[in-house]
Amino acid sequence: MAEEDPADGAAAAAEAARGTLIERLGIEWLEIGPERVVARMPVEGNTQPYGLLHGGATATLCESIASFGAAIRAGGRRQVVGIELNVNHLRGVREGHVTATGVPVHAGRTTAVWDVRVHDDSGSLVAVSRLTLILRNPPP
Predict the structure, then answer these.
(1) Which of 3, 8, 27, 96 is in the most buried spot, having the most CB atoms within 10 Å?
(2) Is 90 exceeded by the pLDDT of residue 61?
């Protein structure tokens, strides 16, 4: 597999995310490559009524990271769709940003599994996630 420049991947992901939920949540791509994807998201504006980071926002961050990573690994030739997402929320966050790092656990011809870890600004682990994806051929 050819080496991708993580900065090029981040710029391409930012362009692809225009007008999507990813953009609305303020997700910022820091690094995108076939072996590792890193992004961060502000807590402000992404909270639930108790002032804590909303679990759905965290789930979107995790799924976005794994989906983009799997698409990069597939070389952009396949449609990548999440089919199962598990997120364990370990610690509440009220301010700052959360940064998530995803790595592939499995990268097959038709499925992929990614592990994503989410940390707060102090480096504390706030969530862990696993996403299973299906890789499909695009429609003709």
Answers:
(1) 27
(2) yes
